[in-house]
Amino acid sequence: MMADRYASDLALVVVAQITQTIGYSCSLSAPLELLQDILQKFVQEFARDMHGHMEHGKWYRQTNGTDHLSKITKNHE
Question: Could you tell me which residue ranges the Bromodomain associated domain spans (predicted)?
Fold first, then answer.
């Protein structure tokens, strides 16, 4: 799918920018691809958890959405 390919390419750019910012430079692509896979899996799991929390419409509408975001981010620390 195009969306999967786009997400994969975007994750690679994000990983490259982060590693470049911290001073990592290497000609090997395997470490970057590993970090790319880890980032993609984390984002997918985070989105799945967020979706599950937001599915509870009444629960979400009665409170501030950021409260639920903080609960999810605590689970991923």
Answer: 4-77
Q: How many residues does the chain have?
A: 77
* Residue carrying structure tokens 């009444």: 58
pLDDT in tens, 13-68: 999 888 889 888 776 788 888 989 999 999 999 988 888 877 766 565 556 555 66
* Cα 8 to Cα 11: distance, rounded to the nearest angstrom: 5
Alpha-carbon dihedral angle through residues 31, 13, 21, 40, given to the nearest 10 degrees: -60
For the chain, give every domain's residue range: 2-75
Specify the pLDDT at position 71.
Answer: 67
Sequence-ordered list of residues with C-beta below 8 angstroms from that of 53, at least 6 positions apart, any chain:
60, 68, 71, 72
